[in-house]
Amino acid sequence: MPTTEKPGLTRDAIKYLAIFTMLLNHIANVLLPENTILWEVFIDIGYFTAITMCYFLVEGFYYTHSRRKYGERLLIFAGISQVPYMIAFGNSQLNMIFTLFICFMILVVQERMMASKWRIPLLILLLLLSVCSDWAILAPVFTIWFHESWGNRKRMITAYGVGAALFVLFNYSSYVGKKWQPGPAMIHALFSAAGIVASGIIILCFYNGQKIPKKHRKFSKWFFYIFYPAHLLILSIVRVIVQ
After folding, report:
1. Which one of 55, 119, 186, 214 has the largest count of C-beta atoms within 10 Å of its C-beta?
2. Would you give per-residue pLDDT tens digits along the chain (243 residues)?
């Protein structure tokens, strides 16, 4: 019996949008001069990606057929992506898929060790471990909020709202630390939350809770994993050619 399609955006459509915004962010970071208008726009739009992936990580944790295989895929592709990531960005921190793996382990601890005295110490340890990775602390915190708010729309809206506010404060303090004037620092910090706000609007208002048709799911599943290291490697090559 065919599945009735609901109006709105499928999970895969939103993930493809997240990949596109991530690409814009990475183009800005790798190829564009800093503090130009285009750089600012691409960077801010790109913040849509990480929080959206945290949301779908929690959803995937609930609905995957095998949590073990899900975690293994994240760890394997995190390892594959690390060298392209370091080449593209010129730093030694862990890439975003490693961050998502840390978030995955946080969910495991939350689910399996709820009554254990070791739950809080392990969560703190994982949070501290994320300091060495992309979207340090922020991605794990959003993941915890999404997990705690799952199935409750009002709490999910609150999680997005509080998260956006904290993101603004985080970026404001960062800009002021770089000796920006308070006014321009706050304007840039407010714009930096645009991606998070867009993620909340799209997921909470337009996501229909469905996947794409079954015949396309295998392609999408692996495309999302392969694109990350592949596009970083391509951006690295482009940067070498144009510099």
Report:
1. 55
2. 344 567 899 999 999 999 999 999 999 999 999 889 999 999 999 999 999 999 999 999 999 989 999 999 999 999 999 999 999 999 899 999 999 999 999 999 999 998 889 999 999 999 999 999 999 999 999 999 999 999 999 999 999 999 999 999 988 998 888 888 989 899 989 999 999 999 999 999 999 999 888 877 888 889 999 999 999 999 999 998 987
* Residue written as token pair 């006014």: 183
Q: Which residue has the tokens 């370091």?
A: 86
Q: How many CB atoms lie within 10 A of CB 132?
A: 13
Residue 12: half-sphere exposure toward Cβ, Cα within 13 Å: 16
- Kindly state the DSSP code that residue 211 receives in the 8-state scheme: P
* Residue in 77, 23, 65 with CA at minimum distance from that of residue 229: 77
* Alpha helical stretches, state H, 1-129: 11-31, 37-63, 67-89, 96-112, 119-129
CA separation (Å) from 147 to 25, 33, 56, 236? 26, 38, 11, 35
